Amino acid sequence: MSKAIGLEVSLAVAEAVKQANVDVVSAYPITPQTHIVEELSEYVANGKLDAEYIPVESEHSAMSAAIGASAAGARAYTATSAQGLALMHETLFIASGMRLPIVMTVANRSLSAPISIWNDHSDIMSERDIGWVQIFAENGQEAYELSIAAFKIAEDHRVLLPVCINIDGFILTHMIEPITFIDQQKIDDFLPPFKPALTLNPEKPVTMGPVGVPEVYTESRKQLEHALWGSLDVVSEVFDDWNKRFDHEYRLVEKNGDLQGRTLFITMGSQGETTMSAVEDLQSQGESVGQLRIRLWRPFPREDFLRAIEGADRLIIIDRALSAGSHSGPVAQEIRALLYSQDFRPRIYNIIAGLGGRDVTVGDFKEMYAHAMEDRLDSNYTMWGVSSDAK
Fold first, then answer.
1. What Å distances lie between residue 128 and 97, 160, 277, 314, CA to CA?
2. CA–CA separation, 107 vs 121, rounded Å?
């Protein structure tokens, strides 16, 4: 490991992609992910990265180019955000359905309307069912490291699925943090060259992505579902391998605070670090409270999650997206459905907070805890920070 240096997180992600020795970068700029692909363009232009850099006319084209490159046997990468991710929607299903190990960074940003360039999780929560492995980073170091690990997960022949690494827009992308970079040789030892299972080759023609008639479509979707659930073991293996080689440890779900806490905050993404500070303060006051951070969102690590919440009386689930017309936010929906078949059912409080980049402070999390302890939160969900005029 080299000495930590202060660097914008987007540039650290670009460095990770460079160190992963990608073959193709397909790029279209959209705030707040633009700095990632801009930096990669510099690497290609000055010869620091031997790759094809494809500037395309839209995010739909960016994913289409990545699909073509991956199908031809290249290690492919792209990045996007918000409306760009939404414009990719059609092609995201194609990437997973064709079992192409593309890696993409999603700089999470609010979806319009009204227009917002700030952070929440509404973009990726609208893409829950695309069949991709989906992982969340909490800080810049994790964004850098998980971007490297993503290629190893995606390209494992037991997986062969695209992976997206979610990093909170602006809160992470434009933040300057101390980043410790890993020596290139160590990354090369960890991440072997890409060996595709099947490639497009005019000398040995194959058909990829043909029409799926009713007699085969269901079977093909079942194969995808099987592969996605099968990726759980591979993600765990890759994380364990990382943990042995490097300083930072990763788990599918990660717990801190009082490990036997009667009340647990459930978080994903950068907001988890603010929650952590609130949990530490509450613990110092004698409160039995902990925190569970969901690292792997898809496939959802059901067994790991259930083991982690054993003994808890209350779950305060923080959602960064509104599932309009539902009784819960997306993360709370997942957890409520999981607990339905369990004998053990802690009380659930769902709080939708931080929409459109609104600040959620340590004091806010302490207040959420106080309301939960007094059972003063809505039985469905509470939208934190809504002014009285908007209610």
1. 15, 18, 29, 25
2. 9
Percentage of residues in the chain having pLDDT higher than 90: 93
Domain boundaries, the chain: 5-245, 253-383
User: Look-up: residue for tokens 């299903």?
Assistant: 93
Residues in the chain: 391
Looking at the domain 253-383, which fold is it?
Rossmann fold (3.40.50)
pLDDT on residue 3:
76
Q: Does residue 55 sit in helix, strand or coil?
A: strand
Q: What average pLDDT does the segment 244-261 reach?
A: 93
Report the pLDDT value the prediction gives residue 385, as an integer from 0 to 100.
83
| Helix boundaries (H) for 246-384 | 271-284, 302-308, 330-340, 362-373
pLDDT at 196 over 90: yes
What topology is assigned to 5-245 in CATH? Answer: Rossmann fold (3.40.50)
Residue 303 backbone class (left: φ over 0; alpha: ψ -120 to 50; beta: rest): alpha
Give the Cα separation of 234 and 231 in Å (integer).
Answer: 5
Euclidean distance between CA atoms 117 and 6, whole angstroms: 24
Contacts of residue 71, defined as CB under 8 A and 6 or more positions apart, other chains included, come to 98, 100, 199, 200, 208
- CA 272 vs CA 279, 325, 328: distances in Å: 10, 26, 20
> Residue 387's pLDDT is what?
66
Token readout for 317 is: 């689930």
